[in-house]
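Q: Got a minute? One more chain.
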Amino acid sequence: MGGYGVSLVGHCHPKIVSAIKEQCERLIACHGSLYNDKRAELLEKLVEIAPRGLSKVFLCNSGAEAVECAIKVAVKYTGKSEIISMVRGFHGKTIGALSATWSQKYRDPFKSLLNPNFKFVPFGRLDKVEEALTENVAAIIVEPIQGEGGVYVAPNGFLEGLRKICDEKNIVLIFDEVQTGFGRTGKMWASEHWGVTPDIMCIGKAMGGGLPIGATLAREDVMNVLKVGEHTSTFGGNPLACAAASAVIDVIIEERLVERAWNLGNKFKTMLQRLVEESRILREVRGLGLMLGLETRVDIYDILMKALGKGVILLYSGRNVIRFLPPLVIELEQIERVIQVLREVLLEEKKKLLISNSGCR
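A: Always. Here it is, folded:
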């Protein structure tokens, strides 16, 4: 589970703990209207590892806040008001982010508050994107790999096609890399798998090593449409979170966690594929690096509970997909233990189904 992808460098990594301890004895709060050395240090490191051209950064407290900023910037930059989002897409639960989120279970209770200018198209279908285009479309927002939606990887050509459409139609391309960023997929940013750079990128989750922090990165000309005071955050960019985030970037680079995610992820995926071949309960494996999804033919609630009883905390994506977002510092032996527990639990589920079917007859 890895804290829904937050614990990318593990829990209480010594370098993160040290950075937090040192900073909390110096200065904890410093509003963004004032200079702070730790904030400046983080901004420099972020821009250095960011996709080329994304040189302006707004610091906030979560991925959802990063999305809120991206939406506002896109609308102001283009002077247009419609946003195209994806079926199965997830971008957060604040009002703007929720307006871009597909799942009806999150949307329905708050329908009256949601922005009606958002429309949804099937993920991976450029033809449907083109059908949804109007002269009033300000932005297209997409996850390179849909996490909450079931770990669906963008098909080859899709992100490239979105880039082309946006360039031709003066539309802002927003990548939500809140879950896929910081090496999770075997590249620093998932978009690098396709060689596509967005106009705006939203990040968060793993960024603070467990502390709440997020960021919106954008091209300078795009972000510069915001005037001073037009979009701010009281706690965004506070020294404590910035110190932690700066240390996270150091750990990712020094411990070569991006490469580790790719290598371990491929081994993990191969093991999961063997489980699929062994069990009729399973349908397929999807994902890149250490962001993987195992689709089943059954409701996974009992699988999750039984695995928990055996010491493995699994994550879900809907009712039938097991999602894996382990720390990138996970050891191969731990992955093998997860596979062992899954095999045991799946065998129990198979026996239960056989008994149930036998009873029906």
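A: The mean pLDDT is 96.
Q: Perfect, thanks.
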